[in-house]
Design brief:
Layout lengths: L10 E4 L2 H12 L2 E6 L2 E5 L13 E5 L12 E3 L6 H10 L3 E7 L4 E6 L5 E4 L1
Parallel strand pairs: 1-4, 5-8
Antiparallel strand pairs: 2-3, 3-4, 6-7, 7-8
């Protein structure tokens, strides 16, 4: 019998881990907990409600550029009343608007980070 699995966090390939980690630190208000040229980790602020609950994100240097749409992406929850304003803030930080989506009442805005990785703001 196998032990139960636990997700540690997503690893994201990157041309410049330090640069993309800076984008996500600012976007999420998280902290950098590991920093080397080839890999950088960001985690929720120590003592925050997300600390120890939300998975950390590890950015790993890879030689090849992003080639296709992400099969897994991050969803950044900001609440229905804040979607447009928060997406605008992320665009000011070099995110790119891709499209708006809605299914019933829930709506979201799909953006890409400075390296082209898609994510949703909802």
């Amino acid at each position: 019998m196998f032990p139960p699995l636990a997700m540690r966090g997503p690893d994201e390939g990157s041309a410049d881990p330090r640069n993309i980690a800076s984008f996500w630190e600012a976007a999420l208000g998280w902290r950098r907990t590991f920093d080397e040229v080839d890999q950088v980790c960001v985690e929720p602020p120590e003592g925050s409600p997300e600390d120890g609950v939300a998975p950390d994100i590890l950015f790993l240097k890879v030689p090849e550029p992003k080639a296709v749409k992400n099969r897994i992406h991050l969803d950044v929850f900001v609440g229905a009343d804040n979607v447009t304003a928060e997406a605008a803030k992320l665009i000011e930080r070099d995110a790119t608007h891709l499209h708006d989506g809605q299914e019933g009442p829930p709506r979201w805005i799909t953006l890409s980070d400075p390296e082209g990785n898609e994510f949703c703001v909802s």
